[in-house]
Amino acid sequence: MEKDINIHLMNMIRSIENIIKRAKHENSPSPSKQGYGRILHVLISSGKINQSELAEKLDIRPQSLTRILVDMEENGIIQRERDTVNRRNVYVMATEEGLKASCEFERRRGARAESVFGCLEEEEKKELDRLLTKVIQHSQKQEKGEDRNDKDI
Q: Quick count: other Cβ atoms within 10 Å of Cβ 44?
């Protein structure tokens, strides 16, 4: 019986993931701008940051990030500059246009979140947050090989 509920929960999470993806694509200004919001969020909270550090914070391959950053730079959303001492280091920062775009992405993100979770009461949202946090922490421990099969995480 426990396996059945675990499979059911995995299917439910997959359904929620699909709902969130659909909402994201419906509200995205264009396919090329998908992913900009997350990058801008990190840039704005970090300020000027090394491109390798940005890739690490975003958990994305540096080559993939470079392609996106080139597009963002061409659209005037970010600015990149090479380190004058070590030319291999590239620093990235949001432009004024990037700050405006970030505000728009955050507004759309809030609308998506409300459309998905607006049906829940505040206490239900807190309980869902607690449960998902527990599942995420457990999964992260398993990935690191720290799984002790604890129920009290």
A: 15
Contacts 24+ apart (CB under 8 A), 15-19: 16/116, 19/116
- The predicted model scores a pTM of 0.64
| SS3 sequence of 8-67 | HHHHHHHHHHHHHHHHHHHHCCCHHHCCHHHHHHHHHHHCCEEHHHHHHHHCCCHHHHHH
Q: pLDDT digit of tens for each residue in the chain (153 aa)?
A: 667 999 999 999 999 999 888 877 665 554 446 678 889 999 999 999 999 999 999 999 999 999 999 999 999 999 999 989 998 899 999 999 999 988 988 888 888 899 899 999 999 999 999 999 999 999 999 988 875 555 554
Distance CA 73, CA 66 (A): 10
